[in-house]
Automatic annotation (TrEMBL):
Biological classification of the source: Bacteria, Bacillati, Cyanobacteriota, Cyanophyceae, Leptolyngbyales
Species name: Phormidesmis priestleyi ULC007
Name of protein: DUF2584 domain-containing protein
InterPro entries according to UniProt: DUF2584, PUA-like_sf
Length: 88
């Protein structure tokens, strides 16, 4: 018996999941995603919107699993001068 989970190296969020309405350096945000996910902690990873456009790097400080969801606490560590499409 195993535990289903996804391994992610990008944090992809839409507005209903808590995508920040305004990107500001060093601000902390809490979001949740469905299912269990493994995401790197304490290293910058790209933050992308629902269209796979990357706007910033975030650093995840806390990751918890509960009731089939992943709860994530992250801070914005870098804002890109020019957003870019991270998936074609």
């Amino acid at each position: 018996m195993g535990m289903p989970c996804q391994v992610n190296s990008i944090l992809k969020l839409n507005s209903s999941q808590g995508y920040p309405s305004k990107l500001e350096l060093n601000t902390t945000h809490q979001v949740k995603k469905s299912e269990y996910r493994i995401i790197p902690i304490d290293v910058p990873i790209p933050l992308v919107d629902q269209h796979w456009v990357a706007y910033a790097d975030v650093t995840i400080a806390k990751l918890t699993w509960q009731n089939g969801e992943t709860h994530i606490t992250f801070s914005i560590s870098r804002i890109y001068e020019q957003p870019f499409l991270s998936k074609s």
